[in-house]
Specification:
Blueprint lengths: L1 H29 L3 H8 L2 H7 L21 H15 L25 E12 L7 E2 L1 E11 L4 E14 L1 H21 L12 E19 L3 E28 L3 E29 L8 E11 L19 E11 L1
Antiparallel strand pairs: 1-3, 1-9, 2-4, 3-4, 4-5, 5-6, 6-7, 7-8, 8-9
């Protein structure tokens, strides 16, 4: 009986001590700071993102005066504002570059133009009845006002040969005049011509505006037209033996063409045509061109006479030069 009482008192003391310890632990947990427990429960990436938020920003003015906590919409606005503030400023927008200076137009094209080329020329209409195909060369300098519009001061030399029937007619005409002279001057005979040849050419100075209506990275197309001064000539020759004398080596004879008759005609002329260009590189300043023009020279006709044995030289002139060259 005594033993039972002792066990009962020991159990009561143990239970009381356990209850006392449990109460003490509960009291200590209740006294810990709320901020520590709340921060421990916030995910790491949200805690890092919310650190630079400024609650004094305009978004905070929309929060309720009766509560210090932000609503969900206010928090998202503050978070977005913070992210925007951390981004770089937007890139500045620029207009089209302006390259204008003493040598370059605002669109990047060169202010100065140069061209040189050569090719073939074909007489047309009535001109083809007495002249034949030959060669042409041309050179020009000028001013570009943009990639599309320019103007050139140009020199052209168009060379022609004579049709066979033209040469035969002239040979017969000259020999008939020689026969008439010999008949009137028996003591001063002139030998008739056995052969004649010759050539004709037209050189010109023109002013030629140019319009580029297509311009790709490497290819382009343009139209050209102009007006200027045209000088037309015809020169008839016969083979002759010439002699050259040197004081040290003596005299030497050689064969050369001697001019027996020549004609000139000056007139205003007009031209127009189409050209194609090709750049070897998209960054190249030079470009190759292929061009065809139609040329009309408004010569004033002259009647045949004792001083004009070749009236066609004064006829209106028509021809088509096709040239290939380089432009800058």
């Amino acid at each position: 009986m005594h033993t039972n009482r002792s066990l009962l008192r020991m159990a009561s003391r143990t239970a009381a001590f356990s209850f006392l310890m449990a109460g003490a632990v509960t009291l200590m947990q209740a006294q810990q700071p709320a901020s520590a427990s709340s921060s421990a429960q916030v995910p790491f990436f949200l805690a890092a993102a919310s650190a630079p938020l400024n609650l004094t920003a305009p978004e905070a003015a929309y929060s309720s005066s009766s509560s210090d906590a932000l609503s969900d919409s206010d928090a998202s606005l503050s978070f977005k504002s913070a992210l925007d503030a951390s981004q770089p400023p937007p890139r500045r927008r620029y207009g089209r570059p302006n390259y204008s200076d003493s040598h370059t137009n605002p669109d990047g094209s060169s202010k100065f133009a140069f061209m040189a080329g050569a090719g073939l020329v074909t007489p047309t209409q009535d001109t083809g009845n007495y002249l034949t195909n030959s060669y042409v060369f041309q050179v020009g300098v000028g001013r570009n006002f943009s990639k599309m519009i320019g103007i050139l001061a140009q020199f052209d030399w168009n060379n022609f040969g004579f049709q066979r029937r033209t040469v035969v007619n002239q040979l017969n005409l000259y020999n008939s005049q020689i026969a008439s002279y010999n008949a009137q001057n028996p003591g001063n005979q002139i030998p008739p011509f056995t052969e004649i040849g010759g050539s004709s050419h037209v050189w010109s100075f023109t002013v030629d505006p140019t319009l580029t209506f297509y311009s790709g990275e490497k290819t382009g197309a343009y139209v050209v037209g102009g007006v200027g001064f045209y000088h037309k000539t015809a020169d008839f020759t016969t083979p002759s033996t010439q002699e050259y004398c040197d004081p040290y080596y003596g005299c030497v004879q050689y064969q050369a063409n001697q001019t027996v008759d020549d004609y000139t005609s000056n007139a205003v002329g007009f031209n127009g045509g189409l050209g194609l260009t090709y750049k070897p590189s998209r960054f190249a300043g030079e470009k190759f061109y292929l061009e065809a023009r139609y040329v009309f020279v408004d010569n004033s006709p002259r009647a045949a006479s004792n001083t004009n044995f070749y009236p066609p030289n004064a006829n209106q002139t028509y021809y088509v030069p096709v040239t290939f060259g380089i432009r800058f």
